[in-house]
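Sat 14:20. Reprocessing the chain from the morning session after the first attempt stalled halfway. Input below, unchanged.
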Amino acid sequence: MREAELGARIRAARREKGFSQQELADRLHVVRQTVSKWEGGGSLR
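Finished this time. Tokens:
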């Protein structure tokens, strides 16, 4: 799976659950910018 496709899936799942990027970041113990990077197709490393 390409990173852009995975980012789209992360975004869709987050929206389906009604979470903001900040809320998801808090649950995953990362900063909001990391979630944004993932959703934008940035590196998942």
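DSSP finds three helices and no strands in the chain.
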